[in-house]
Every structure is written in C-alpha cells, then in structure tokens.
Batch of 4 targets.
Target 1
Amino acid sequence: MDKKSIIEYIRNKSGFICDMDGVIYHGNKILEGVKEFVSWLKDENKKFVFLTNSSENTIKELQGKLSRMGLVVGFEHFYTSALATATFLQSQNPNGSAYIIGEAGLINALYDVGYSSNNIDPDYVVMGEARSYSYEVIERAVNLVSRGARLIGTNPDISGPIENGIAPATKALISPIELVTGKQAYFVGKPNPLMMRIALKKLGMRREDTIIIGDRMDTDIVAGLEAEIDTCLVLSGISTEQSITEFAYRPHYILQGVNEIVKDYRI
C-alpha cells in the first residue's frame, strides 16, 4: 500500500484513539500539524479520545495544557491510566485505602471513587509518575508491600518523551519496590486490554472502525494489536525506525507524525 492509500485508509476511519505524549506534544511543546489534525477530527465529525498512560494530570489539567497550546477539547475526549486504575481498584476492593505515590491526577482519581489515603496499613501501594519520589517514600512502600499491601502501577512505561529528551516513568520508578520485595506490580494502563475496552466504549465504536495512533511499540501498538484494532505508529515520540526492528511485531502503518494525516498526497 503506497503512502496516499495509507492516508486515505486512515482518514476513512470513524474512531481515533490517540496517545498524547509524543503524538500531540512533547512536554509543553505542541507537535507539527496537531492543530490541523484536531480541527480535521472535529470538522469531519470523527469520534476521538486522547488515551494517555500518564497518570500525572487531571482531565482539567490536560484540558488546560492543550488550551495553552491553542487546542480546545472537551473533557469527554480524555481518559488516563489514573482514571482506569481508580476504576479497577474500586471494582476489586470498593472504598479501600492506598499509599499513593503520584501527582494530582492519580490522587484525585482515587479520592473520587471513594478511596482514602493510608500510609500505615493500606490495601494497596499505588504508583504513577511522581515528582515526590524519594528514598524515604520508596522505603515506606517497600515495607508496606512486605507487610501485605498489593502493588499497583498505573502504567508499564519505562520512560516518556519530554522537550529535551526522555524522563523515567512508572515502571522505572516502581522497580526498586519490586526488586526489594520480590513482588511484581500489576499495571493497569496500556497495553492492558482494560484500557482498550474503555476507549472503545467511550467512542461508542466497533474495533473495525477504529484506529489507535501512538508513539510506543511496547504500549500503544501492542495494545492495538492484541485488541484487534488497526495501529498507526508515529515517529514523533519515543520510537524510531531502528527501534521498531527490536520487536517481534509491527504496526499496521507508520507515519512521521499526525501532520501526515492532514497533508495532501498526490501520485
């Protein structure tokens, strides 16, 4: 399939599941063609959701971040691993307690489903991206898990793109707890099928009419493949043409960025 045919095929999809970091922006810098892409989604009445593995921000904060970049997007178009984690824990152990290592997005999501903060005898130790990460925090988490608290990670990302490179993400931050306790964390975010089911439900779409656009082979692309959703890898984030070869699977389509979707191609 040539580039023009690929673009036409993607444009004909009715539902779009889009990652954010590395697809829409790097840090606080919007990526090329994103404004045109979002305008196109709206103008064509496409169903779309920004599905991020980052647990750091609340929906309101994500809305504000995009607004500062010139993008006005309703709250219904967002879903995060923090919200998925809160939903999962509430279904497993309603109104439980957790030692929370994370930012406002995760803390608020857990409080909103009825969870309480507990640093003495919690049901869970829950970790997301955390700027409060410290030796003391890890030491406490290790001892809580050793005494029976179950270990939960909001996502299995090792790193994430930022404006000047990459930053450690949840899986990297949680690994000391796993190593010391010998307990493996359960990760709720992509590629957990739970996230894909939630995204399709929010869109109200069939998987055949949907495509997932992401920058990571190990989360976005494998999530789509295992959910039998068409996948488009963009090279505007963490992945490169070389890094693709390190995986045993391939995305259905590869583009430089979402700007290509709204660019005219001629034979």
Target 2
Amino acid sequence: MKCSTGDTIRFLNDTGGGTVVGFASKTIAIVRDSDGFDIPVDISEIVVINGNSEKILIDEYEEKTAENHKKTLIRPKENVQENVRIAPNDDKKIDNVEDKDNDGIEFEVALGFIPVSNNYAENGDLQIYMINDSSYRMFYTIGKYGQSLVTPIKSGEMEGDCKELIGILSKDEIAEIPVFQINFILFKNCNYKAQAVQQIDFKLNPVKILNSKMFVENDFFDENACIYILASNRKTLKNCIENLSDRDIKKSQKDKNDIQRKKVKYADKSEIEEIDLHIEELINNKENLSNGEILKLQIDRFTIALDLGISARTRQMIFIHGTGNGKLKHEIRRLLDTQYAGKVRYQDASFKEYDYGATMVYIK
C-alpha cells in the first residue's frame, strides 16, 4: 500500500498506529505514535486511515532530500569533519560502489564521547559521535527526551565503518541526566542479511561521564574517549555468560533440568516451555538501568532461550513480554521475522491466559 508523509495510519498485524513523518527507504516508513516515539515500520504492515492532501508520494521518495532537524539542544561544532572513516588508512570512496554481502553480518553501534578541551574537569563540554562499526550502511535518528516528547537532534545516513559528529553536550546539559532516543536501520545496496530495526533509550549517567577515568584508549579515535555500546551482535552469548551472576547460572541450570524433565515426562505430547521476560524475573535490581539497557537484557534472554529451545528440539515456547508500550513485543517479532525466519512460526498466545501479553513460538 502506498503511504505518504502526513498520513494517519494503523498497523496491519499489531495494535496501535500514528502519523507518517518520513521514510527511511522505499519500503520503510517512519511512524510517530501517540507517545511521540518515531518507529520504523515496513510499509506492507501499514493501513492508511486518513490521507494528507499535501502528501509526498512514496514513488517520489528518491527525488526528495531529507533535511537534518534544525531544532536541537545540542550545539553543533564548527570545522569538524563529519562522516570520518574509522579505518584512517583506507581512502577508498564507497558512496557509488555496490556493497558486498560477504563482508560479514557482524555489527556494533555505539556512542562515543570526547572532551572538547584538555581541561575537562572545569569545562566539561563533550563531543558526541555516532559510531557504525560494521559493513552495513546505517540510517539513524537521535533525539532527547523532554517530558513525554522527544526533541529531534540529528538524523542521517552513514557508510559502514564510520563515525559521525552529532554535536556538543555542555556540562549543564549533562547534569540534567539526559535520556536520548536512538533509532537505526542497517542495510546494504545489494542482497544482504537483514538485521532487526533498533530503538534504544540511552540514559547518560553524569557521575560516570564526568569521571576522567572513563576516557580511555579505543579503536575509534586517536584521543581517549568514553564508548557506550548501544547494540551489537558480536559474541552475544559469550558476553551474556561472562556477565552471569551465580544466581543466574543456578536459574539457567534449573531451566535446563526442567526442560529435560519435561521431555521425559511428556515424550509423546507437545512440549511447551514458558519464559517470562519481565525484567523483575531476570535481575534483582533494575534501578540503575536505562530503558535501553532493560530492553537489551530482555532481548538477550529471548535469543538465548530460543536458541536453546531450537537445539533441544522444544516444540513450543511461550515468551511472556507483557502488554506495556509494545517495544519488547515489536523487537521479538522483528527477530522472529528476520533472524529466525524459516526456523519458527508464531502467533499470539492464549488471550484467556495472557491477554495480549505473550507470543507462542512453534519450532519447525
């Protein structure tokens, strides 16, 4: 279905909707929901309710050039080269070169913070960089929460293995404990392995960022910098195992034993494993975690549990994500449609038991 900027829409296979505010590509629309969140949505999943008479047709997308947002609370820094390649010795331009799918599917997206002056303790101003450490191109948006709305800061498209200056954050702004909303889509200009669309809430901790010891040597900058990983598919399972507490290890072992007992007891019946992804079930204390960190923990738990279920030939798994604002459910179903496509099928779990707060996954 064709849709245009300004159209009021609803989601075809999910609850909710909003207004189309732009396009990330010919097939991906950016939808702003009632809470002010900008969500990348596949156009095939959109139903137009009320069109805009001053609309821009999707067919004209390539003829339109999106301008960066002008309103920003972060001051732009002049005379700083943007879109700087991470590999300084590689001067090859790839703007007009077709990407290669065999360059790999690993990715890591991060924010980098660098002091503007050497006297950081007094000045405190920081340069903020978006880092795309992958062979994928990336479309991104970044904004800052203010009450219930997000103030746009910058958006753009980056090549693979690049970093791009977002702006400068003052010491006063750091003291306000800003929360950023970052959305990004990874893609190539050839056939490629799809990755899930990411929406991350990142809360900057002023106690840590104002500590000079947080700025260390790194792979991205000549200067010492503070690097925060927003999303990565590198050694996900290894990192999770290394960060497991004794309680987590015992719980994991209990889950494994429970699965084995179920397989013996119900050898001739459908095996169903239930995984509760509420953060309270995963960790003891969530007070110091941002929304983005909570979502990452939940997604990591989901992928690890599903991978174990596939290995153990579990026939059915129920993932309890709750109703909430739908972010966790949205990301789970994105992964099922991309990373696990062909391996599983899914549907809403029993409404009577879970309301609309769980997804039933059938392993093929």
Target 3
Amino acid sequence: MSVVSLTLRNFRCFKAATFDFSSSITLIQGNNGSGKTSLLEALHYGCHLRSFRTHLPAELATDKGELEGFNLAIKTDLDEITIGISGKRRLVKINGAQAASYQELVKSYKVITFIEDDLDCIKGYPEGRRNLIDQAILVQEPRYYTLLKNARKITEHRNKILQDHPFHHENYGIWTEQFIQTYKEIIGCRLHYLEQLNSMLTTITQEYGSEDLIHLEYRIKRPFETLQERQLLQTDERAAGRVLCGPHLDDVEFIIGQRNSRAASRGQQKLAMMFLKIAQARILMSSNFDKLVFLIDDFLTDFDTIRITKLLNLLFELRVQLIITVPQQHDLLYSLCAKQGTFNLITIE
C-alpha cells in the first residue's frame, strides 16, 4: 500500500489542491509557513482521524464560513479514502462505501509520523507519552481502540459514583470490577508492545553504532493487585472524590543510556525518537502488514552529515513509502534519495 495522490479542499492553507505522491520517496520543499507540515498533517489525519497539531477539527478548516468543514481524499494503489468534516459531523468512506469502523480504515491505510512536537513527549507530561504508545498500538492492533473507549466510559462512571451522595457501595464495586478487567487488558497490550519495541530498539541502536541503549519502562500510577491495595484505593478515592488510578494516569519513561531522557541533549532526544519510529515501522512490517507510509517533518535540524546518512540508510532499509519535508534544497539528502531511484519533489511556494 502506498499513497498515489492527496486532494484537499478547505484544509489549512489549501483552498483546493491535489498533490502527487506516486514515488516511493517524496521530498516536500518550501519555506516556513508554506504548508509543508499541513500536507503531512492531512496524510496523518487520513489514518488516525486526528491531527498531530490540534484536537479541534474546526481549526483545520481554511474557510470558517463553510460550517468549519474540510474534505480530503487519499488515493492509494489499493483504495481511495475520503473524509469529510462539517461542523461536528464526520464521514469516512473507503472506495465509496461508508467505513463501518476505525479498524476498517487502518486496514486500508497505515501511517507512522515523526514530527518536531514528538520531542515534547520525552520531556513533557505523561499524557503525551501514553498517547504516543497508544497510537502506535492502534496502528498495529485496531481493536485496542475499543479497550481505550471502554476504559474512558468506565472511568466516567466511577468518577460519577465517587461524587454521588450518598455513596453507593454496590455500584462502585460493579464498575470497579469492570475497570480492573479492562485495565489489565490495556496494560497487557502496552507491556507486550513495549517488550517488542525495546527488543527492536536494541537492534537498531547496535546497527546505528550508538553507545547509548534506548529503552522504555512502564510506570503504573498506583498498583491495586492485592485486596489490601484495593481497599485502600477505595478509601482514598472516596476522600478525593475521583478516580486515582488507571490507564489514563500511568506513564512511560524514556531511558537513554542509564538516565532519564529528560536529561539528554536535544540531539539525543531527537535521535531516540527517530529510533522509536523506525522500531515501530519494523514491528509492523514484521507482522506481515502491507507497505507503510512514513511521514517525517523537519528531518535535517539537529543532525549532522554523518547522522543524516546513517538514519536515511535505516529508513531506506524499511522499504516503506517515505514522505519528508525540507525547508530548502539539501544536496546530501537529494543525492542519497536519488541513489534509491527516482524520487518525487513537491515544491510549495
């Protein structure tokens, strides 16, 4: 599976435009603010149904007078995906038929995205790191979406019970048992994926020649395995009036070498994130998935000639479709891409 073309209407700075992505490698060149990242954003949205820059679909629309809506059409060599947003309504079609589920969409179109803001996951709040891992799992196992959705629903019910007066012990017990079961499934998926990821990160680090091993460690906000832990949890939750543990509160710690990655340099953090994305791609490709689309924004910043060359070689070995933005012509990047065969160049004025 690879992208052939992208058609946008009323999306960001593009009132109406179509772009060709028929090559296995596409470089998008243009000045800052020209719309390079917006193209990646649209391609990313077609897989994840969310932007990597905003949680509000209305912010993606160019003309706010058109019910704050937009349309995008992604044609691959296998399917055509169309997404229309009008106000709060969203319609997703695959080959003209309405998609029945998110699982159906991901089976048709799989995207991995590396953007500058990914570095915020390393040095920022736990929510960003959780979302990063959850999104990676979703592309590999779309049914995981149902688990996350159920967990949110159960958490909302438990919060309501904890805020009700008088407190209803029976309802709290029922929803807590559902919560425990769903939580264990989510943790199981996360831990299994992190095990795969860490194994692949070790291999990639060795291939690259880095001395700093990169791995991720799962941090449970609050354990509740034993009866005593559960009883104490109920006491504390009643006192707080809200849920105090769950998949929405856990964290994933990035370790570079022997220390937390927050203490690493920006260059080390960016390299670690690139390794993570490459590892994600390898895991997917090893699972007999169709060809992936790998989007990379702001690739050159913070990397010298040696690192650019070594990273590109790792990316070329993936045999995925690469779409990379660059602020201006970069002779080394263009030369290395040309050695792989014909590459496509999109210049945005």
Target 4
Amino acid sequence: MTMQAIVLNDFGGPGVLKLSLTARPAPGPGEILLRHTAIGVNFHDCYVRSGLYRTLALPGIPGIEAVGVIEALGEGVTGLRLGQRVGWVSGRYGGYATHRVLRAAEAIALPDAIPDAELAATLMKALTVSVLVSRAHRVTAGQTVLVHAAAGGVGQLLCSWCRHLGATVIGTVGTREKAAVAERAGAHHTILYREEDFVARVRQITGGAGVAAAYDAVGKETFRGSLDCLDFEGTLVNYGQASGPVDPLTPSDLAVRSVSLVRPIVFHYIRSDDRLAALSAQVFEAFRAGVIRPITPLTLPLADAARAHEVLEAQRSPGGVVLLP
C-alpha cells in the first residue's frame, strides 16, 4: 500500500517541498492509522524546511498538526472507533501526507461543530495560546499586554483570549487592514509598527509604565523593543522568530526592571497524555464559550505545499493555511 506525501530530502527554500509516493504505514500495538482530511501549515514547518530547526531527520515528512478519520486500529486500542474524526498535534511530524500512524493516546476527539479545515488551521494555535495566557504568563484582569503580529493566526486568538481575561490589549500590525483585523479580534489599541516606534507608542498608551507581558513571535526585529516595553517585573514571552533568531543577551539585560524572559514550546506542555487532555479541554471550552473563534483558512492541495510556505513567509495568510489531501 502506498500514500502521497511531501518527503523532505534536503533543507532549503519552499521549492524543496515536492509530492511523492511512499509506503503507507500500518498501525502497531497502541496505534491508529489516520486518513488525513485537513493538514495545518505553521511557521514551525517553515523553520524545519529551511534547516533553521534540525528536528526532523531526513528524509522525513514534515507537518505537526492535522485532522483525519481513523481507518485502522492497532492491537489493544480502546476508546476510539473506526471512522471517528480526530485531530493531533505532535513534534513527531508526519503531517504532510494523506495518511499517518499515530499513538492512540495522542488522538484528540473533536467537537462536531467545527469543520475539518478550520480545526486544522486553529488547533495548534489555540493550544499555543492556552499556554501563553495561563502558563508562560498568567494574564489577569487589569494587566496591559503587548501582542506582536496581532492580525496573524495566533495573534488574533491571543487578542481575543487576553481581552476575555480582562486585560487591555495592544497589538502591533503592518497595515491598516491588519489593524482592523486585530481590533475585531479584541485589540483595544493597534500600532502600525512600520510607521511609528512601537516602544514609544506603548509607553504613551500606558502612561510610561509599560506592559505586564509582551508576546513576541517575530524575534530578531522586535525582541529588544519588546524588552523595552515591559513594566517592572514584566515578562517577555518569545515564542517564535519569524524575522530571524534573536541576538544573544546576558542576565544583566533583564535587570533594568527585574523582568523575566520565557521561551515556551507547546510540545513541552503536552508531553504527557494527561497534559494534552487538560490543555485540549481548556481549548474546546474556550471555543464553546465564544472566548475564541476558529480561523477560516486559505486552503490549498497537498501538492501545493511549496506555495503554502510562500504565502506564510510573505505574510499573506488570512491567519491560517491548510493543505487538503
């Protein structure tokens, strides 16, 4: 039996992502075979493809989240059934394919109300935001927080969740159109970072105090400015590096206002089955309560994975990109 997959043989630009035929795996004990219906595309995938992250052994199939239907159950699997729709998020990769084998304990039962493509675009982002607001930094009512890339997929969810928790949200964006997106998502203030100094503007908005937390997935271009935006005892949550790796710093760089630096990786927060279950439950409750809403993504065929990466890296994504097998 074979399947279609994007097999990464060499690191490089988007053009290295090419569709091929490869052997379809069979589930072993405690595993399931999924037929994917929608595959999420993330900046993590771009870092893996380029070689910035050397976490996928080559040749290998990239992709860290997807939604699918169970086609086969391995020996000893209970609590799941053939034909059931489930999602997964995993650092074990394997997403850019029509099928994959998954540990049964990693399968996430999904709510019926959210379509496959929206779930594939949103699930990992929502898990990430749950970590950002409750674990990397606990957002509470009365705080002011800074969200970079506030019109992006994670940014929109982050603005919504922080506002729900009672925080004042300042979002940075690149265009007036993106400012409108961020404001609809929940940002109280937006800063056009290409037109104004975001550090000075944050200080103006906060009356010189700064923010309790700065959420920064941009990295190199914004990191030092994010540090400068923090109030005393504030937290810089650096959870990505879309503009490149952050320059080195020393502990004394944090001493000016006794600030903290956190670098969360969502996989570390779902490293056990009970942690995954707890975080998933928190996310689906947030969906049910209307705290966050699923992202409507750009959808492309699996064969167009290279174009999906180009769209993401050019910042032309509507907040999510999904591949359809």
